[in-house]
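Forwarding the complex inputs:
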Amino acid sequence: NAGVTQTPKFRILKIGQSMTLQCTQDMNHNYMYWYRQDPGMGLKLIYYSVGAGITDKGEVPNGYNVSRSTTEDFPLRLELAAPSQTSVYFCASRVGQSNTGELFFGEGSRLTVL
Amino acid sequence: AQTVTQSQPEMSVQEAETVTLSCTYDTSENNYYLFWYKQPPSRQMILVIRQEAYKQQNATENRFSVNFQKAAKSFSLKISDSQLGDTAMYFCAFMKHPTQGGSEKLVFGKGTKLTVNP
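Prediction (whole assembly, two chains):
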C-alpha cells in the first residue's frame, strides 16, 4: 500500500494563477481531509469528505474548491491564487466509523504564491 | 466548537532525560479521541499515541505515555529517555468519537517544537 499520495510536493504560483493539488489513497478510506499548515498556527481544516460525492467546508474554505468523484481521489483546487495561500498543504484519510480515529497523512505539498 | 491549546511553543531536553508536553482542550462532548502527532523536519505527520476518553487508563507506547485528566480537560505527553530522533514538532489533536454523531474533524493545537540536545 502506498497510503496517501500527494502531488506535487512543491509548487510556485504567480498571483491569479490556478492549480490543483492531487491526493489519492489506496486504503479504501471513506473520510478524506485537506489541511493547511502555516508557521506557528498548527493545521487548519480546509475541506473534508465523508464519501464519494459528499464534501463539506472546514474552517478556512475560502479560495479553494474540492470534488470527490471516487473513493480514492480528493483533489483540492486553488482558484486565483493569492499570497495568503502560501502554505504547506496536507491531505489525510481515515476509515469511517473506525474504532481508532487515526488519520493517515500524505507527505505534504509546499505551495508558494508570488 | 472544540479548541485545543498547547501553551509551550518551544521546549528543549537533554538526551536520555524526560520531558512533558502540555495540552488542554475545550469540549462539551463526553466521548472523544485525543491524539499526539509528531512532525519531524521531513514534514511527515506521524501518530505517536492515542487516548479514548471513555478509557480511564492512560495510554502508553514504549517511551511515550500520556496523563489524561478528563475533568480538567488536560492531555499531556511524557517522553522518557529522550532521543535525538524525538526532535520534532508535536501536535495535540481532538476528534469527536464517531458514536457522537456529526462530522468527525480532527482539531489541532498550534504545536510545540521539541529539541533534544546531545
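The two ends of chain B are 41 Å apart (CA to CA).
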